[in-house]
């Protein structure tokens, strides 16, 4: 996992080296449920290789909330923090290599990190980045047309368009697969 660190600074290497023993490495096939909606989260996952989708069930219809790729962490944060049922399912979309840490070890790690200003700042920065991503996604879902959302997705997150099946992208954009096909055809014709 060390070679996968997005920021190979001395500090990042120190952190991973110090805390790696708390993580367990697993290899899971595509379409594996890591956390089911309604279960309480007890783990935080770090993705070494693969893709994970977070989604919820809306009366039998799967609504995709987010995609996570290499070097990302994912969990149902509300569930993990408050020990409440998860509002989302977390599922692999590709064969994946994942590192996980259980809640007890994660709580200890966070308590230690909070005492070291450099580590605390890194943690806060990571949380803010995730929050900014959610706000941006929420704003675009209200403000932009489906075609504008798809074009921004192609521009800002090309890995989603390249790696994710179309029906999941449509779900993420809040449209049908047929509507997404029409948008893609319009964009292709306009080039």
Automatic annotation (TrEMBL):
Transmembrane segments: none annotated. Gene3D superfamilies: Jelly Rolls. It holds the Pfam family cNMP_binding. It comes from the Bacteria. Residues 22-118 form the Cyclic nucleotide-binding domain. InterPro entries: cNMP-bd_dom (IPR000595), cNMP-bd_dom_sf (IPR018490), RmlC-like_jellyroll (IPR014710). Coiled coil: none annotated. This is Crp/Fnr family transcriptional regulator. It comes from Mucilaginibacter robiniae.
């Amino acid at each position: 996992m060390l070679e996968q660190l997005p920021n190979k600074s001395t500090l990042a290497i120190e952190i991973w080296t110090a805390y790696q023993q708390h993580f367990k490495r697993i290899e899971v096939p595509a379409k594996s449920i890591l956390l089911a909606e309604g279960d309480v989260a007890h783990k935080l996952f770090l993705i070494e290789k693969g893709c994970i989708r977070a989604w919820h069930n809306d009366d039998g219809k799967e609504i995709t909330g987010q995609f996570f790729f290499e070097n990302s962490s994912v969990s149902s944060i509300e569930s993990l923090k408050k020990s409440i049922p998860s509002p989302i399912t977390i599922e692999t979309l590709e064969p994946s290599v994942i590192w996980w840490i259980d809640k007890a070890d994660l709580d200890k790690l966070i308590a230690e990190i909070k005492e070291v200003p450099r580590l605390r700042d890194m943690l806060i920065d990571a949380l803010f980045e995730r929050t900014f991503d959610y706000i941006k996604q929420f704003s675009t879902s209200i403000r932009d047309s489906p075609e504008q959302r798809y074009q921004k997705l192609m521009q800002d997150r090309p890995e989603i368009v390249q790696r994710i099946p179309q029906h999941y992208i449509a779900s993420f954009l809040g449209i049908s697969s047929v509507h997404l096909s029409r948008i893609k055809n319009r964009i292709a014709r306009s080039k």
